[in-house]
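Why does residue order matter? Because the sequence determines the fold. Keep that principle in mind as you read this record.
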Amino acid sequence: MKATARSRKLLNIALVEDDADLAESIRLMLENAGHDIRFVGLANSAEQALAEFPGLKPDLVLMDLKLPRMQGIECVARLTTLLPDVQIVVITVFHDTEAVFESLAAGALGYLTKPITSDQLLEAIREVREGGAPMSSAIARRIVQTFHRPATNSQADVGDQLSPRELEILHLLSKGCLQKEIADEIQIAYSSVRTYTARIYKKLHVHSRAQAVAKYNGTLA
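Structure:
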């Protein structure tokens, strides 16, 4: 048999991080991680990532959420469109449930909170290789707590609460589409999409896209 050291597929990893010191620290962690991991690119903005990463074709992207102009959640949604096979793990200081659900709804498969050690990063990469969804323990607990809340009558059937157009827009939101993309998709004004979205929030008694999507998917009580 061939040596197991050569049996694992090379994993190409790119990073989106605007903090130069942290970006350098993560780059060094990855470059020292072993022969089966290759650091292929760094972007300090979402715009740079969207321009450069399709040519680099990374297998895994580590994504910060707080970026200079376009924010990380929007970048996640756009990258998964440009690179359908890419896997994205968020690495951020944000601990709130809304940011978690919005990131996952946009297409991220994992969510880690800063600061992160080399051991934590490599363990997350191992989970990705094995088909898992790496989560910081505090984030995983928040998600479990959300699932365990008892359902209420107002959440029993989202479809009965919304008009066909509102349901169509909520479906597109659940797929990670941006409001401008939804306007183009269903050929209505961007302002109309915003109005419909506000109505959806009001009818479902939620305050964010993440909560609306979670309720649509039957995971939010």
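The beta strands are 11-16, 37-43, 60-63, 87-92, 110-113.
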